[in-house]
Specification:
The complex is a heterodimer of chains A (about 130) and B (about 325).
Chain A lengths: L6 H5 L4 H4 L1 H23 L8 H24 L14 H33 L4
Helix pairs in contact in A: 3-4, 3-5, 4-5
Chain B lengths: L1 H12 L15 H33 L7 H31 L9 E8 L2 E7 L5 E5 L1 E5 L3 E8 L4 E4 L7 E3 L5 E6 L4 E7 L11 E7 L1 H11 L9 H9 L39 H9 L1 H4 L13 H12 L3
Parallel strand pairs in B: 1-5, 4-10
Antiparallel strand pairs in B: 1-2, 2-3, 5-8, 6-7, 6-9, 9-10
Classes of the chains: A mainly alpha (about 130), B alpha+beta (about 325).
């Protein structure tokens, strides 16, 4: 393992459950964006002023995805068998899951930004 | 010879070019935004395609082993992942402000338009209150914000003035808002862009962008009945044949709202919702057999009218101005 990773992150092993953290965060943020816009439109009629709560929620979602990608990146570099990493050994399984989580983190990161930008830019309820 | 053939083939592509119904010949701020984005996307796509062709060209000709595995993976990461994500984000940020609807104020003109098989019911909210009803022609003042309130009466239609703004659906039971600003006076054309029945392709309308002062004078003048309204042989035939059961003419007893309002038919630029020149001859033909010009039209045919009678009604309608 690389240095710089805190103890809890070292103990956290990438599994199928941690694999779904980035896309689940993306889905939760998607729902959050719709709910936030709907509530603002119903109560205020617009959301043209700078939306602090929404930006905060988006930054939180991005941080969760970044953290999950960071841990996955470290674990995808666990030293072990020679490539290709496709045997049913513990190390290969870990590396495969970690690489998949890393790629999903990248996708989810971009997706959250693409969901957030229209909310920030359009600001109109019509 | 081959060059002549290619030129002829290319000129066929230009046959659709015009100034009155084109998303490229714009006269409104919204359509200009759309055109700018379109041009940026087409040019950008061409540049990216050229870059990729260059990369492939080099890749095919480079001797084997010029890139290490690591360098190759990095190329895939940047050209296949990070690069496209950045390009798409920039395009999104570039395009999003154009999607923000124009802000409307209390004094802005509101025009209600309802799509019906196969014509347009148009209502201008007048400054003093009340709605001025017209049909198959939309007039807008240049330089002012105009809010279109759009709905459908029977099936889903779609309202599109290519030179002015993007499309907006007209859905029965729902009102959609389209806010625009015309920048250049002139005569233009709009169309229905949601298949709505047999004569969908024959459902169009004239658009006239006018200088603000001229528009105000026009709107004020429209409320008065036309000079010839309610007089003459044409009016007698119009009433006797039940035309007033569907059509209204201000200043007469005819005030039905089923079909297009004919109060100022003499000023209309076209007949049959943007499809025919509004001559006396064509109007008389349309009265006797509307389905010949417009298949599936709701207006019944009047074959029992003689040519002279149909012409008399047409002359009467042409005089309404």
């Amino acid at each position: 393992m690389k240095r710089g990773l805190p103890g809890w992150a070292l103990r956290l092993r990438v599994t199928l459950w941690t694999l779904i953290v980035p896309p689940t965060t993306w889905a939760a943020h998607f729902l959050f964006a719709y709910l936030w816009a709907a509530i603002n439109c119903a109560k205020v009629g617009q959301f043209a002023t700078f939306p602090w709560l929404f930006v905060g929620g988006t930054v939180a979602a991005l941080l969760v995805i970044l953290a999950s990608g960071w841990i996955a990146w470290h674990q995808s570099r666990v030293p072990g068998d020679a490539p290709p990493h496709e045997e049913s050994t513990d190390v290969d399984r870990l590396r495969f899951l970690a690489k998949s989580t890393l790629l999903l983190s990248g996708l989810s990161f971009v997706a959250v930004i693409f969901t957030a930008l229209p909310v920030v830019f359009i600001g109109d309820c019509r | 010879m081959r060059r002549i053939g290619a030129s002829l083939a290319a000129s066929a592509l230009l046959s659709a070019c015009n100034r009155h119904q084109s998303a490229l010949a714009t006269f409104g701020a919204e359509a200009t935004n759309i055109r700018t984005i379109t041009i940026a996307l087409v040019v950008g796509a061409a540049v990216i395609a050229a870059i990729m062709i260059g990369v492939y060209w080099r890749a095919v000709r480079a001797p084997e082993g010029q890139l290490t595995h690591k360098q190759g993976m990095r190329l895939v990461l940047w050209l296949g992942g990070i690069g496209p994500a950045i390009v798409l984000t920039v395009i999104l940020i570039f395009a999003l402000p154009a999607m923000r609807p124009r802000v409307t104020g209390a004094g802005d003109l509101t025009i209600h338009v309802e799509g019906e098989q196969f014509w347009w019911r148009v209502g201008y909210e007048r400054p003093g209150g009340g709605v001025l009803v017209s049909a198959n022609e939309v007039r807008v003042p240049v330089g002012r914000t105009v809010a279109f309130e759009l709905t459908g009466r029977d099936v889903i239609h779609s309202f599109w003035i290519p030179g002015l703004a993007g499309k907006m659906d007209m859905i029965p039971g729902r009102t959609n808002s389209l806010v625009v600003r015309a920048d250049k006076a002139g005569r233009y054309r709009g169309v229905c862009t949601e298949f709505c029945g047999l004569s969908h392709a024959l459902m169009a309308f004239d658009v006239v962008a006018m200088e603000p002062a001229a528009f105000d004078a026009w709107l004020a003048g429209q409320a008065r009945p036309a000079a010839g309204a309610g007089q003459g042989e044409g009016e007698r035939l119009f009433a006797a044949n039940g035309c007033g059961g569907c059509h209204a003419i201000r200043g007469t007893e005819h005030n039905s709202r089923i079909g297009p309002d004919l109060s100022r038919y003499g000023e209309r630029l076209t007949l049959g919702a943007g499809i025919l020149p509004p001559t006396v001859e064509r109007t008389a033909q349309f009265i006797r057999a509307p389905q010949e010009a417009k298949p599936g039209v709701r207006m019944p045919a009047y074959p029992q009218l003689s040519n002279q009678e149909a012409r008399a009604i047409a002359v009467y309608l042409k005089g309404l101005k």
